[in-house]
Amino acid sequence: MSLSFLLLAVAALCALSFYFGRQRAVALSGGRHSNLHSLPAHYGTYVALWCGMPALLLLLVWYVFQGSVIEAMIVAELPAEITSDTGQLSLALNSIALIAADNGQHLSVSPEVIDAGRRLANLQSIANASLVVLMLCVAVIGISVSYRKIDPEMRARNNVERISRWMMIACSAIAILSTVGIVFSLLFEALHFFSKINPVEFLFGLEWSPQTAIRADQVASEGAFGAIPLFVGTLLITVIAMCVAVPVGLFSAIYMGEYASSKFRAIAKPALEILAGVPTVVYGFFAALTVAPFLRDNGAILGLDVSSESALAAGLVMGVMIIPFVSSLSDDVMSQVPQSLRDGSYGLGATKSETIRNVIFPAALPGIVGAVLLAVSRAIGETMIVVMAAGLAANMTVNPLQAVTTVTVQIVTLLVGDQEFDSAKTLSAFALGLVLFLVTLGLNVFALKVVQKYREKYD
Amino acid sequence: MAVVTQSAMTAEPSVASPKMTARDLNLFYSDNQALYDVNLDIVERQVTALIGPSGCGKSTFLRCMNRMNDTIDGVTITGKVTLDDRDIYDKHIDVVQLRARIGMVFQKPNPFPKSIYDNVAYGPRIHGLVNSRDELDEIVMTSLERAGLLKEVKDRLQSPATGLSGGQQQRLCIARAVAVSPEVILMDEPCSALDPIATAKVEELIDELRSNYTIVIVTHSMQQAARVSQRTAFFHLGKLVEVGETDQIFTNPKDERTKGYITGRFG
Amino acid sequence: MTDMASLMEDRAAAKVISDKMQKPVDWDNPKIARNIKKRYAAERRFKMYGLSAIGIALLVLCVLAGSIGSKGYTAFFQTFVQLEIHFDPAVIDPDGTGDPAVIGRANFDGLVKRALQEKFPDVTARRDKRNLYGIVSGGASYDLRERVLENPSLIGQTRKVWLISGDDFDMLNKGYIDADVDESNRRLNDQEIGWYNTLVSEGVVEKHFHSRFFTSGDSREPELAGIWGAAVGSFYTLLVTLTLSFPIGVLAAIYLEEFAPKNRFTAIVEVNINNLAAVPSIVFGLLGLEVYLNVMHLPRSAPVVGGLTLALMTLPTIIIASRAAIKAVPPSIRQAALGLGASPVQTVTHHVLPLAMPGILTGTIIGMAQALGETAPLLMIGMVAFIVDVPGGALDPATVLPVQIYLWADSPERAFVEKTSAAIMVLLAFLVLMNGFAVYLRKKFERKW
What we know:
The complex is a heterotrimer. Chain A folds into 2 domains: about 5-155, no CATH class; about 225-459, MetI-like (MetI-like fold), CATH 1.10.3720.10. The longest helix of chain A is centred in the N-terminal third of the chain and has 39 residues, at about 110-150. Chain A is flat, with a radius of gyration of 30 Å. By secondary structure, chain A is an all-alpha fold. Chain A has a two-stranded antiparallel sheet. Chain A has 16 helices and 2 strands. By secondary structure, chain B is α/β, with parallel strands linked by helices. Chain B has helices at about 1-10, 60-65, 95-100, 115-125, 135-145, 150-155, 165-180, 195-210, 220-230, 245-250, 255-260; strands at about 20-30, 30-40, 45-50, 75-85, 85, 100-105, 185-190, 215-220, 230-235, 240-245. In chain B, the strands form 2 sheets. Chain B has a 6-stranded mixed β-sheet, with helices on both faces. Chain B has a 4-stranded antiparallel β-sheet with strand order 2-1-4-5, covered by helices on one side. By secondary structure, chain C is mainly α. Chain C contains 19 helices and 3 strands. Chain C has a 3-stranded antiparallel β-sheet with strand order 2-1-3. Chain C is extended, with a radius of gyration of 34 Å. Chains in contact: A-B, A-C, B-C. At the A-C interface, helix 2, helix 6, helix 8, helix 9 and helix 10 of A face helix 2, helix 11, helix 12, helix 13 and helix 14 of C.
């Protein structure tokens, strides 16, 4: 039975139980709703909630654990020579999954594995069937218990409202859960990584070449995991992007906010916002296929040796992507500067630009710094543009005409394709992810603080 | 009686050699008319008070006198405002220079978030009035002294102006306006955000400044108008109802509306 | 006392100063006049900077649109070659069974090759022959099979049929291959270009609207590759994202705006939402990889995993937008409902939520548009695989539009450049539609309280 069918069945049961719960309440009231504590619909909802919620909860828990439990059962039955070697084990598990999905006819594997594949298919169908049965049981139990509780005196509305309040709290808690999830999943694998590679070597090492560790049987070649070249590359591209985004974004905001007529603004502002809505993969394509060749060819004319994966191309396009971000944030910030300060300056005979440069800009500076920090954090975390337009080789250079690589590029290249969760190569992606997360988080928290403090000043 | 006031009114504004005049001034915010045919003369080295109920157009009129309304979208103005017999709405007039000659002090003290010194030095700096640091120092000191603030702040000229009290901030704004040696100072309810002691100090100051500057002050308080001004103009619903010597307006108003306002029947 | 004293001192000082008669500024002084000129020049310069900043941004936008449009519009048309195909019964259905299974297995490729051989009988060398067959795409045989299965009476006849051409040939016809370049530096040799010229002179080369681009899945052959598979993948992914993030986001927003007490839990939730909104998307990909794939063992490359990951990512957007919309409902409405004896939950569901719904929907659509354009986290959870089949559900392996663009952009064939640009145009069209709808909603239901 497929998942969607199961969900539909639960939904149908809920609808039915709503109907019968409501009917029962009406029947018990003797036709006079005023005899009931709550509206009949509340009694219906009460029963429906007790039908659907436990069943869905069960489904959720089941899906969280099913995979790992079944895998543990399969692994337990495999011969020791397979399970002892993690590389072989993951290979075997892959074949087992293929066989179970009836796709493994062409595989030449040991009979144990084929057996295990059949057993896996078997276990999966048992698991699915028992899930269906269990869910229906839970739903029916929920219905019958709550149905019997219906009574004109019962405070159905209060019950329903209490449940819905807890549901809302649970939904809000998902925000916390995802942060916790991010931290733990990054930390878990990163610690795994640091048990193989010294964190000091990772953070301060000058050489990055994880790809040499691609073959597990090459005992000696563990690869080099010094992340400094990645940090330098990320920083270089970020600086280039900021050199584009900050002046252009800031001046656009100034023009929009202080000079532009409302007609001009009505056209130019949405046009700028289009830049923010363009998916990053499109910018990446643009950087790789239009900007990079353009820079390379023009560099060649000037006698410069511009790499076709130059940091400059990626940085410039990333800067363009961030322009609307900087512009709308600084527009916000500058429009918060009270009119009275502008008046004060105009009243002394200052021109617009003098007022902007000498009064508005200094007053808005903290907010603008916050906005720029947010933009920096966005540039550091940007992935697709650099994946498509920046290089893979970890060159330690600050020359914008050469190819550099970034943290995000490495995460993508390390994790796209086959992943072995026991090799330092794969795990290093999580360590990089952890660094990326911590740095952007730090920048964001700091920037939001600065902006908030600034807001309070003028509120 | 009413007929008499009419004729008295048309005759009154013509003062011998006024510093500033307004002639048939009309002002519209998009489609709403805010001022109707205002005719007013401002006498040199006197304090002219503009009084009237809220929304009567007195602040709007004040902002016409140094073209601050230019900064608001959708404002149209007809008629004429002159400074020393030159139309300030003439297209050859430089707004920047004009606003330096006609300074302004606002309702709420609005010091720039800079040091006290930089606040006062701002005007002379942008207008290029000084050649050396010493000259600038002198202007700053003189202006602060004129505004009666020097004593209180001379030890902390480099500390932020936002740290001053409300009354000190307002006197700083006056010092800031004085620093560019304006000929006229417009004050838009300069004491409305201040406590009584600070108000008294600012009123003192206005009285001092009268010997050097022509001052126009918008005020809500009739007592203040009576205390600081020599001439008073009463605005009502966008019209200039009556103008004359302050004593005369307060003791013997000619218009019923003026009388009603002064005796507190509306406002 | 001291106050009075200082007042007296101030007055004394002021007297001294006012005696020192101020000299009015001489505005006609040449130095000051020059200064004013300079200030106005600076003003004009500054204004120019602002205008040129906007100009630069808009120029880049135009270059971006122009470069993608000019590269991509040709992909909507495909070169076809008209060949005389003999539907040989001996090849298609030697025993005359008429059984679709037999016909389906027939060697239609051979028919195409034979037709090409007949057209250019003097090509004999093995390599030349292979080049010759390259004129027509490998996909042409599927088209022929469809045709015969639909209309079995074709068997035994000879018909002129438009066949889809190979990608190099298509590129040549669209002018992307320059015949003047040295032979070793282009994808087609002189002989192939000769064939092309012969076919063109016979008038059997035409460009037709390329409907396959919209109806088929990915392929290694550019002329056969389409975006339908990716579009369906995007649809399932967004469906999962929407069904999760919309109710969760709205409920969380209602709680935070209407019910949450000012306590530690609420404060932590708020901080978390603000920070999650700024976490790089790739980190969500790492989360998805670890939690959904490694811990929960959900299927790799499936839209359901992509949807779950993107749901977490769009959640802050939806919560923030919904909170703003709920906050905009004036308190008087709540007081009115509460005053009539409605419970807080009833107040929210009957009054606040309906009024806030346009704003919430606008925020949701914008969040969905972001999710539609998102690529990086989906690379992490394996949606980057090469998948030919159109997914049939949220658990089938699939890819999505932006990832398809990424995959094609990485492909070496020249023909994929135009496919990539065309796919970008399709993606942008969807985004424009979604954002346009959001703007429409906002305009239509905009309400001033």
